[in-house]
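Bit of a strange request maybe. I'm writing a small parser for structure token strings and I need a real example to test against, not something I typed by hand. Could someone generate the tokens for this chain?
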Amino acid sequence: MLDARKAPLDCPDMATLRCQIDDLDAQLVALLQERSTYIDRAIQLKPAEGLIARLEDRVEQVVANVRQKAETQGLDPDLTESLWRKLIDWSIEREEKVLGPGKE
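Reply from user aminoacidic:
Good idea to test on real output. This should exercise your parser:
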């Protein structure tokens, strides 16, 4: 990781800009890995609470939350939703490997 993040306009050349993007990508990967540990914990907790892997109400709640956050941050909410739906589907598939598919 870089010592200090530069604002895009402070990047004097493509090499510097690419380093900044690579650093952000590394941080995003680390956050996704951390998020997956919460999915693993959900796998442990859901059976005791009688919950199945895919809870449609929760899926839509998460999507609505990230769309709102994207809009607030000036990020395309449609792109954000698309990315999160992929992430959610992956997470649910991970849960279903242990919990099995269920019906809501």
